[in-house]
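Q: What structure does this chain adopt?
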Amino acid sequence: MKIEMIKENKKDYLDLLLLADEQESMIDKYLEKGIMFAIYDDSLKGICVVTKEDERTYELKNIAIYKEFYGQGYGKKLVEYIFEYFKNDCDTMYVGTGDSPLTIPFYLKCGFIESHRIKNFFIDNYDNPIYECKKQLIDMVYLKKNFKYRYIKG
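A:
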């Protein structure tokens, strides 16, 4: 299994990106400024995109694994990798998601805790209703992972 940064032709991964964010215009808002990682295990299994939001705050904007590889640990490996990759530059990592029984438990298992919500986000920002587990997504649920501060003796 290997994870590598994707620096060019990020739109080539649109099929995967759309699994996690169903509207291309929303993906376009963060894709080019984001840092993309791909996970391979013989073949491509998934991707994620992380953006820098301010000096020491990052956001996991998109993480998607091909459906036939769900439950095999690829998503968790990607999250662990980005935690390690950004640990020296990041105090807080956020992720926003719908209020879904599929995604919230995944992020909690990865070490995120609930932070805040943006009311009506999916209604106000998406052209069509989005459903997950037969439930319409309405509010954006933000979760966060705080990293321990590192003190340097001088």
